[in-house]
Specification:
The protein is rod-shaped, with a radius of gyration of 44 Å. Helices cover 71% and strands 0% of the residues. The protein is mainly α. It contains two helices and no strands.
Length: 168
């Protein structure tokens, strides 16, 4: 056999083997590229679903926040109205009157000519007899009002800070 023929046969075999390997690599690359594209498509779809879930959750949270803001504003108005009403009820002496007390002292509701009969639960102090609440009860109510106002102010401050912290 001719040595050139052997070399030529080896070169042809290498060429065929190399071409076959190249075709195999090309097919593997094409398969990999298709798999990558499929994974990208699935990932984009999942991302779109999760993004929509996030948007829905943010919208629900915003709707809840808006509703809570309306409730809070209504509650703050109620507190302010009650605070003003209590302040007005204190009168010039700063002491509160019993809103259920009848009249302003003896004979206020009695018929003409009748003498007012003292009740068994009337206080001995004449200043408290006209429906004024005791100094201790007035002080207690005013202290409780002040504490409630402090709590309401703290709540409003914390809520405002929480909203500020959550906003981008």
């Amino acid at each position: 056999m001719n040595p050139y023929a052997i070399i030529a046969a080896i070169l042809v075999a290498i060429g065929l083997f190399g071409a076959g390997e190249y075709d195999g690599q090309k097919r593997a690359h094409t398969t990999d590229a298709l798999e990558i594209q499929t994974i990208k498509t699935e990932a984009a779809s999942k991302l779109a679903v999760e993004t929509q879930k996030t948007r829905n959750a943010e919208q629900a949270l915003q709707a809840f926040t808006n509703a809570q803001n309306l409730k809070d504003a209504d509650h703050e108005k109620t507190v302010a109205d009650l605070h003003d009403q209590l302040r007005r009820a204190a009168g010039p002496s700063g002491r509160l009157r019993d809103p259920n007390a009848t009249g302003c002292g003896a004979g206020g509701d009695s018929a003409t000519g009748q003498v007012a009969s003292p009740s068994n639960d009337s206080p001995a102090d004449g200043a408290e007899a006209g429906g004024l609440l005791s100094t201790q009860l007035t002080g207690l109510l005013q202290r409780l009002q002040s504490e409630a106002d402090t709590i309401n102010d703290a709540y409003a401050s914390c809520r405002a800070q929480g909203i500020a912290d959550r906003s981008p």
